[in-house]
Amino acid sequence: MAKNCPHCGLVNPPQAQRCDCGYDFQSGQMKRSYLQPKTKLRKAAAIGGGSAVAALVIYFLFIRGLGIIARLFGG
Fold first, then answer.
1. Cβ(30)–Cβ(42) under 8 Å?
2. Fewest CB atoms less than 10 Å from the CB: which of 15, 34, 47, 49?
3. Quick check: helix, strand or coil at residue 74?
């Protein structure tokens, strides 16, 4: 039967000894969390999101550039 964490509410598998938030099911105490702080997660997401936006901008500029060149040479 699944274990519901009383600290964060996450549903854990029956064999779980600790929740991701750090709650220890056997002792009933909070331990160190397995999760990263939110600031690190946001920073990683921001880096990934920024590079994706840059790739899209470069792609569209390249396509537009090819269209302009084709028109200049009568294509």
1. no
2. 15
3. coil
Strand-pair partners of 12: 3
Helices (H), 1-75: 38-72
Is 21 in a helix, a strand, or coil?
A: coil
Q: Are residues 16 and 49 in the same domain?
A: no
Indicate if 40 and 75 belong to the same structural domain: yes
Taking only the tens place, the pLDDT of each residue in 1-43 is 899 999 999 999 999 999 988 999 999 999 887 776 665 555 5
Quote the pTM value. Answer: 0.45
Parent domain of 19: 1-35
In whole angstroms, what is the distance from residue 75 CA to residue 70 CA?
Answer: 5
